[in-house]
Here is the input.
Amino acid sequence: MRVLLADSWRVVDSKGGTEKVLCNMANALIERGYKVSIMFDEKINGRPFFYLDEKVRLINAHQKETHIALNITNWFIFNRKKREDRRE
Here is the structure.
């Protein structure tokens, strides 16, 4: 089974509790045999600060110019006007 974890906050080199829980959850799911991807929206590329199994696929939606990635990045915009402007 495949699992997609989406994070609307920083992931790359972030040291907060949310990022730690995200990495721990992804690692636990990998140990149970799931295929795990983490999608986030950041201007920079990189890996999380906390240990993350190499099998976890990282998807930076900000770097992808696909229809799906652009729609998902709209989920991360909470300001309605900015979200509508980005769709145009």
About this structure: The mean pLDDT is 79. Strands lie at 2-7, 35-40, 57-60. The first strand starts at residue 2 and ends at 7.
